[in-house]
Fold this protein.
Amino acid sequence: MDHTDQDLQTLGIKTLHDFDDVRQSPLPQERLAAARRQAEAFRERFMDEPEVAYYQSVNLVRVPYPTWYAYSGVYSQRNYKFPYLHILNRLFIVQYYDFLGELKTLLFSPSDIDADRETPFFKRLTDKMPNLPTLEGIVAPIFRDVNEALAEINLKPEDVDYISYDHLHTQDVRQWLGSTDRDAYFPNAKLLVHEKEWQSAQGLLPLQAEWYCPNGIDGVDPNKVVTFTSSIQLGKGLALVHTPGHTEGNHSLVARVPDGIRVTSENGVGADAYAPMNSKVNAIRRYAQNNDMEVILNGNTLEDSTDQYISMVVEKTIAGPSKNPDFPNCASSSEATPYWLIPGDKVSHLIGEATFGRLQTGASKTKKSPIKSLLGRFKGSDVASSKRAQREMA
């Protein structure tokens, strides 16, 4: 389960060390400046990457979430109109070519909606509601589950190579990967998880356990877990960048797509969190201006708020502007969205769902990248030059 750089290379994955040393200074401002410079350099390089073969974000479920947590600090000294807002949890489906030239399919943030209800915070929340299915359907409406989302695009469970989450809050992975008491729904899938996140989930303190699904990783075959200690690039145009703070092992999905670079995590709950100075929500904008806050944390645990602040700046810098230049292209895995149940709640800009590229499934699925497949046709003396060309492109 503990994977070295060499082990990752055999899987077609490269270790990234871009951000390994940016948090060394004892001065937080210097750490932030170093992280920002590195993020700017990373963005410049990543914009030259080819786009992933396919990218889709899919609505799964709405859930009520405390306003106090969603915009940490904003409402500590003022009243809010309603104690909850709605966050919309999404699944991200990405196909890409790894560094061995193989077409891979990643599911990022595949939430097991039924199992995740056992997360202590949300279980207490639902237990307080009357036992009426209709009411739960209004308060926390489900658009589709992961199985239905994949069926809609004809993606088979056996086609999934990896699953990953920015962190393991609320997640139960046993249905997907299997455990001692059940078979895996995704028979060929492995979990990509930062080593610190995987270790932390096995020995939680009470303030952490509030947000982790009980027994959510118990009995999972260690051979189905791929851990990494830095950041990693899964293939051309796709990376998992370590962004600690919300949890120690938090990481962000970075995808090169037609509208630039999309960065996904739950460090922030939407556009207002990543560009609060430009927010149309008066309380958020005024708080940011009065306190010179560049980002607003999703603060349900605040394991390390200084690191989380720096990580959010890294994310927004890598992402660059969205179609609304006032807000970065940060596609939060759970995005704050307006809902009729809370008429006073609003957001300044929605990233929303998106689909780019063409999904390959079944007989249409080309395992080798088109360029490397073409190179593989060379015979005889051309084989050596073909291999040289491959090394140069890699």
